[in-house]
Amino acid sequence: MCQFCDVHSGTRNNDRSLCRTNMTPTSRPIRTAVVGGEPDDWDVIDHFLGDNSLPPRFSGDSSGLRHHVDFLPSVGQDEWSNQLRRAIAHDSPYDLAVFDADTTSLPLIDMLHVFLRSTPYAHAIVLCDVESSIPFQIAERFGCCQRVVLTRKPLDQTEFSMLANMVVGKVTEQRSRQSSLVFTNNISPSAAHGQLLEAHKLLRAQADQLTERLQDTQLELINTRDVTVLALAQLADSRDPETGEHLLRMRAFAQILACYLHNEVHHPEIDDNYLAELYRSTPLHDIGKVGIPDHILLKSGKLTDDEFEIMKQHTVIGAKTLERATRQFRNSRFLHMAVDIALYHHERFNGRGYPCGLRGGEIPLSARITALADVFDALTSARVYKTEMPFEQAYELIVAEKGEHFDPLIVDAFEHCLDDFARVKLAIDNGEQESIELSGGARIELNSIVGMECVD
Predict the structure, then answer these.
(1) 334 shares a domain with 407
(2) Pick from 304, 406, 389, 410: which is nearest to 353 by CA?
(3) At 235, is the pLDDT very low, low, confident or very high (cuts 50, 70, 90)?
(4) Residue 65: pLDDT band with limits 50, 70, 90
């Protein structure tokens, strides 16, 4: 069995015509296929990967290496496989492929599988938007093979130049090592052992480099996602008479309650991932208010019964909006939690809430936590239709609703965390946007996209 047939654990190449270990990787031109893409990107790619485009150590001089780029704007599944076979048959396989994840008509994961099996030194560069799910799919399917590199669109010439140099350098070195390790028959055991050690060191260094790059890319995507989520939440909040600080306070209150339940009560549903997803999800609780008419949403007086029925629909509107997003990103836990929060944060523990009339444990924990945090901030904040309620009075009202409006367990947590609620409210009302220290030495980031440190 060929050692290069397995690109990913559990996946085996059954098409033997795409795997030729008897092919000698000499100083033939480095050949690149560009699949999909747009003309502006083609110009950048051709500039850095075309003939005589790279530095001398890659593009010529004593090595004799040149570069050849084939542009394949639209290619079918069979045509792609045939293209690889033809290249191999002429002893000129593709060393590098550049895929545009947005414009290719073929399933990207399948195309990568076929290509990476074609030669043991094949590498791929994937162009994708920072908000797409492609990086996570690639990390899941190809993270172990270390031969797929991501770069964002639109292409940045400086970044792509560095990336092209790195990848072509890897291809060149691996072709050379493959030639000396696999095709040299008269090598002594000790020399072979030394070469294998060198190859192992090189591969380890390359793996570390690519892992670091992938982690940086994933962090950038996560940060971009979280900034976008908060911006959307603030956009919805801007139509409401509440201030933008409501989201910051309510999110911090919910996080304090959840951290207490995690650290002190050891609630089985809550772990570090849960806390992170709750932090991202809570600002979206009222996203459905974008669908409520202004004459109802902005009304300064008491709503009529008919108007209140329309207002209650913001829970359903928000949940449906977020549910559509979950279909695009099925593995996004925080979006699934956000659906629960948007739909159920007005449910009551006694079953008299809306829109579904759930009671007790039927209401998701995230929505029960958000409900208390949201109501407490609403009570202690001024609105166009009411004045700010004193802190102690709001506290007494919350406690009085134990077992009625609110989960008794969460009210107990609230009573233990009251001083931290006061610290957060004072800090945000005074315009602080950084972190503050809570009781026990924990710290909370008031305006961060990464959450809070809730463990001492």
Answers:
(1) yes
(2) 406
(3) low
(4) very low
Residues 252, 116: one domain? no
* C-alpha–C-alpha distance, residues 293 and 261, integer Å: 38
Is there a single domain that holds both residue 242 and residue 188?
no
Question: Which carries the bigger pLDDT value, residue 82 or residue 27?
Answer: 82
- CATH number, domain containing residue 246: 1.10.3210.10
- What stretch of H or E contains 429? helix 418-429
Instruction: Tell me, yes or no, whether 213 and 242 share the same domain.
Output: no
- Alpha carbon distances (Å) from 268 to 259, 271, 286, 345: 12, 8, 27, 21
Band the pLDDT of 373: cuts 50, 70, 90. very high
Domain carrying residue 195: 16-219
Residue with tokens 């931290």: 420
DSSP string, 199-213: HHHHHHHHHHHHHHH
Q: CA-CA distance, 146 to 148, in Å (whole number)?
A: 6
Q: Are 128 and 135 in contact (CB under 8 A)?
A: yes
pLDDT confidence of residue 7: 36
- Evaluate if pTM is beyond 0.85: no
pLDDT in tens, 138-164: 776 776 567 888 887 777 777 777 777
- What is the distance of C-alpha 357 from the center of its chain? 34
Q: How far apart are the first and last CA of the chain?
A: 52
CA–CA dist 314, 299 (Å, integer) = 15
Let me know if residue 161 belongs to a domain. yes
Q: What pLDDT does 312 receive?
A: 96
Regarding whether 352 and 215 lie in a shared domain, the answer is no
> Is residue 199 domain-shared with residue 265, that is, in the same domain?
no
**In this predicted model, which residue has the larger pLDDT, 61 or 188?**
188
Is residue 280, in this structure, part of any structural domain at all?
yes
Number of structural domains (the chain) is 2
